[in-house]
Amino acid sequence: MSADRRGVDALALTVERLRQDLERAQETADARALIGIATGILVERGHGGPSEADRYLRRLADTAGLPLLEVAADIVNAASDDGLSEALRPDASERENGPRHAGTALRLRTAESGTRSDDPQTAAEALLRHAVSPLGGTALAVWRAAFDGSLDLVGHAGLTAVEARRWRYVPPGVGTLPQLALTDGRSRWYGSLPDGFPGIGTAAGPVGARAILPARLGGRIMGFLEACWPATRSPLNGAEFRRLETLADLCAHTFTGEDTTTDATVGPLADLADGLLDPSMVLRPLVDDEGRIGEFLITHVNRYFTDLAGGVPLAGKRLLEAFPLAARDGDLYDCLARVHSTGEALRTERMAVAALAGSVPLTVMAAVSISRFGEETLLSLRVEREADRLAALLHHVQRLAQVGGFEENLVTGEISWSRQLFDLHGLPPGSSPVPLRRLPSYVHPDDSVSADRFLRTLMQRHRPASTAFRLRRADGIVRHIRVIAEPVTDGLGALVSVRGAFQDVSTHHWTEVALAATRGQLADAELQAAERNRLALQLQQAIMPPVPAPLDMSGLHVAVRYRPAEKEHLVGGDWYDAVVLPSKEIMVAVGDVAGHGIGAATDMIVLRNALRGLATTGAGPAQLMSWLNSVAHHLTDQISATAVCGLYSPETGVLRWARAGHPAPVLIRDGHASALPLPRGILLGAVAEARYEEQQLTLTSGDRLLLYTDGLVERRGVSVEKSLEQLLVSAGGPTTGLEEHLDQLLLHSRSDTDDDTCLIGIQMS
C-alpha cells in the first residue's frame, strides 16, 4: 500500500473517531439536560437541595436496576401534564405489540430538553437525534413561516451545508410541501415524492417519505418541521405522529428568541444588505406570546454602516439599546413598526435620526429606506453630509442658471469640467473636454476677435477676463455664451492653471431681442396714439371752444361751459350747440357719443352738423331726434350716442324738448332745483327706426334751465339717481349770475371719471 493511501486511511479513521466523539458529547449534553430536569422536579417535591436530589435519583436507579436516564425520563413524564405526556400513552397498535419500551419516553424527553434552547438549530439537531432517527428518518428542517407565505430555514440536521444555504429562504409561491400545508394548517404525511418536486433535500435524486408538522404557538402557526426519510415507507402510527406534532409545537418557542447570529446565514436580507453601497442593517421583530411587537433585534449590519452611537458593534443588540433616543423622538422606531405591520415600504429624503455619542445627544438628517421581507426588515440610511448637501445645491444652481464650471491645468494638461458644461457644448458625458486654446475654432467667425482678446488677456497678461460669443456646437446648434475666467499663478508669477465658468445666455439674448423689438413697436404705437389724441383734441377745440361767447336773444340769456378731458387719450364725443334758426326759434342741444379718441370726435362732428342741418327744416324736437337716430344708425359705422334737444319760441315763451337716452334737464325756479319729467326716447343708433316723445315747458321770468352731459355728475360706484340728487342740491340755493353759476357747478362737481363735460345754462330775463 502506498504512503498516500495509508495517509488517507489514517485521516478517515481520525474523522470517524472525531465524529463519534462529537455524537457522544452531544448525547452526554442531552442526558445532563434531562437529568437536570428530573433533579429539579425532585427538589420541588422536597427531596433536599440539588446535590441531595441528584443522589436520591441515582439511588432510585440502583434500586430499580434501571439506567439513570430511563428513571429520569419516567420522573419527568410522571410529573408532566403536557402534550408530550399525552403523546407517550400507547395507542391500540402499541398495546397489541406488547408494553411500550421505556426508551421511547427517554428519547422523547431528551429531544424535548433540546427544544428548551432558544436556538432553532440546536432544537433541530436534538429532534433528529432523539425523535426522528429512531423512526428511520435521516434529515430534518425547521422552517419559520412569514405572513406572505415565504419560509426561512432557521434550523436543520442531516443536510449538507450546501443544501442548507441553497434553501435558507423560500419566496412565496414556490409550492414546497410546508407552503402547501399553510392553506389548512394540518399535518401531512407523504409516503413518497415524485421526481422534480421542489423541496429541500431533493437535489441528490429520488427521495422517500416526508412528514410536514405545523409548529404552533398560542394557536398560531409559527412554522413547520419537515422530517425526511431516505426511502418510501408506510405511514407512522398515531402515537408516533402525535409525538412528533408535540415536539414541533415545543420547537415553535425557539422562533421567538433573540438570534444574535451576525454572519450571512441570518437570512437572505444579509446578502442584500452587503450588496448595498449605503449603510444598511437587517432587523427582526421580537414578539411576545400574543404576537405583539415589543422591540427590534439588529441581526446584521453591512460594512458601510456607521454606528452613530460611537463605533460600538451593533449586531446582536436591540434597536432601542443601540439607539435609545429613537424611543423618545419616535420617528425611526414608529416607521419601522408601521412598515412591519402594513408591509408597505417607506422612502423619505430627510428624516431626523437621533443617537447618543457618548452621553451627548446627536441628531443627523438622513435619507431613509425601510422595506419588509418576510419577517425581517431592511433599514438603509444615507446620512446627509454638509459637503454633499452643498455639492447638490451647487449642481442645482448651475443647472437652473445653465452655468458650467471648468479648471484647466496648463502644466499637466488635465481639464476638469462640470456635468453642465458638457451639455452646453453639446457633448455626451465622458467626452474629452475642449482646451481653452481651441476655443476660437468653436466660435462664430464674427465673434473671433472677442474670443482672441479674451485669451490674450487671460493667458498672456495673466488678468481675469470675460466675453460673450456665439458657440457653434458639434450638433450644428448655435448658442450665445458668456465666459468668465481667472488665471492661477505660482509664487514666481508663472501661469499654472485657469479656472472659470461658461453660461448659456441664449434665452436672455433672444429675450433682449424680443424686448427691443417690442419696445420699438410700443414707441411707434405710443407715437401714433399721441398723434390721434392730439388731432382729436384739435378737432374738438375747433368745433367747441371751452368758453364760447354768451348769447342774448329775445330776452333769453344762454351761456356755455365746456371742460375737456384731463388726459388726451380720454378725449371723447361730448358736444353742445346753441343757435338761432331761420324760424327765429332758438335751438339748444347737448350730446355725448360713446367712446374716446379721434373716432368719437369725428362721430360727434357728424351728429352735431347733422342736427344743425335738420333743424332748418322747421321740424319739432321729437322729429329731429328720430331723424338723428337714422343718421347714427344708417349713415355712420352704427355709432351710439345720447342727446337732448330743445326749441324755444320767444313769442310764446314755450320750450319744446325731447331726449334720446340723455339725463333730464334741471329747472331752477324760485331757488328750487328739480329735474324735468323724462319723456320716452331710446339712445341714438340703437335701432333702425325709433319714435321719441316731446314735452313742453313754459319759461317765466327768473327761470333758469341747465342742460349737461354725464361728465358733470357721473361717479364710480354711485348710482345715477344718487348723482342727480347731489346735482340738485348744488344747483339750488341763492341765485348768482348765470356764468358764475356755471363756473361754480364745474368747480364743485363730484365727478371722478375724468370725462368731457358740456354744460348749457338758459336764463329768462
Automatic annotation (TrEMBL):
<dbReference type="InterPro" id="IPR035965">
    <property type="entry name" value="PAS-like_dom_sf"/>
</dbReference>
<feature type="domain" description="PAC">
    <location>
        <begin position="465"/>
        <end position="517"/>
    </location>
</feature>
<dbReference type="InterPro" id="IPR036457">
    <property type="entry name" value="PPM-type-like_dom_sf"/>
</dbReference>
<dbReference type="InterPro" id="IPR005561">
    <property type="entry name" value="ANTAR"/>
</dbReference>
<feature type="region of interest" description="Disordered">
    <location>
        <begin position="87"/>
        <end position="121"/>
    </location>
</feature>
<dbReference type="Pfam" id="PF08447">
    <property type="entry name" value="PAS_3"/>
</dbReference>
<dbReference type="Pfam" id="PF07228">
    <property type="entry name" value="SpoIIE"/>
</dbReference>
<feature type="compositionally biased region" description="Basic and acidic residues">
    <location>
        <begin position="88"/>
        <end position="99"/>
    </location>
</feature>
<dbReference type="InterPro" id="IPR013655">
    <property type="entry name" value="PAS_fold_3"/>
</dbReference>
<dbReference type="Pfam" id="PF03861">
    <property type="entry name" value="ANTAR"/>
</dbReference>
<protein>
    <submittedName>
        <fullName>SpoIIE family protein phosphatase</fullName>
    </submittedName>
</protein>
<dbReference type="InterPro" id="IPR000014">
    <property type="entry name" value="PAS"/>
</dbReference>
<feature type="domain" description="ANTAR">
    <location>
        <begin position="15"/>
        <end position="76"/>
    </location>
</feature>
<keyword id="KW-0378">Hydrolase</keyword>
<dbReference type="InterPro" id="IPR052016">
    <property type="entry name" value="Bact_Sigma-Reg"/>
</dbReference>
<dbReference type="InterPro" id="IPR001932">
    <property type="entry name" value="PPM-type_phosphatase-like_dom"/>
</dbReference>
<dbReference type="InterPro" id="IPR036388">
    <property type="entry name" value="WH-like_DNA-bd_sf"/>
</dbReference>
<dbReference type="InterPro" id="IPR000700">
    <property type="entry name" value="PAS-assoc_C"/>
</dbReference>
